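Input set for joint prediction.
Command: fold jointly, output tokens.
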Amino acid sequence: MHGFANPKRFLALASWLTPLLLVSGLLLTAIALVWGLFYVPPDRLMGETVRILFIHVPAAWLGMGGWTAIAISSLVFLVWKHPLAGLAARAAAVPGLVFTAICLVTGSIWGRPTWGTWWVWDGRLTSMLVLLFLYFGYIALSQAVAREGGSSRIPAIFGLVGAINIPIINRSVVWWNSLHQPPSITMGNSSIDTEFLVPLAVSVIGFSLLFGGVVLARMRALLAEIQTEARLRRKADGGA
Amino acid sequence: MTAALKAKHQRLILVVIALFVIIGAGLLAAYGLRNEANYFYLPGQMAANPPEVGQPVRLGGMVQEGSLSMLDDGLTVSFVVTDKEQATVDVRYSGILPDLFVEGSGVVADGRIAPDGVFVADQLLAKHDENYVPRELQGMDQHSADQTLETLETGA
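tokens >
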């Protein structure tokens, strides 16, 4: 693990891994979406609206996965003080926010024809909305710290504390009566027919690869930004 | 080097303790909310804790097979909402039914208990179950109906 804390080694790895993840992610996502939107049969009750599954479910998982990544990176940053871990947490926040927003929007569009309402304040929907606001808070906080200076431990602690919402989202449909359906996919068990499940799996893998690629690309950008700033500062100091 | 290791371990222990406290607090809060954060009451919960007449309340459950009927005015439907424990609530509703509203599937109704003991709904929401089945496999209906009943048990 210490090997990857070295920015040089990280950059050498990221320079070929980033395009690989992005291209394969785009390819798999495209396959899954064409498959899911045009070739999958309509659902027994929902009809054509079932197709939103192939965007909604991966987006929801990655929205939660993004915060899990923030929490783990924050833990590594707080305990081992790896600077790259702090960058990884910052880099995961925006894609996590985007996927959470996609999940909420697609879910709302699906809810109108299926449930008969755009939005309800049940446990699942509310906790997912809280996750969206947590992302906004985290991004504002980490950017303020990066810009104004201040301890990077503050966003890291926020990232760890916010992680408590993740198991709540996951369990919300089990603990409480909710309008949102209970989990269809649990450990080694699925109540989704294979015809839907296979393209869904492809979609989840594709979205995840994309997510990884975006995080790596953003980490490289953040590193470059830090290097530029350091160089400019050195130049300014030398000129003075 | 040993001092650095020590500081690192100290931080690890501190963070782990903090995490335990936070998770404990979160779980405690969720446990405290388990009866308050329900989006709706099941018929069994409503029977055990009857709401006052006229008090707004949300009822959720499964539309009993064979219970759906149109009243004489041609606008009002009446049906029975049931749960896994076979508790039932009679419901009356005037308005447009959601597309997914069928016998044997889940429903969430906003409304209140009328003086005659019938639940009068102002709004009906269809509750989709966690089963995704193509139209070609409609034979699974009874099986998935059983599963819907099973899932309604959660939180009860």
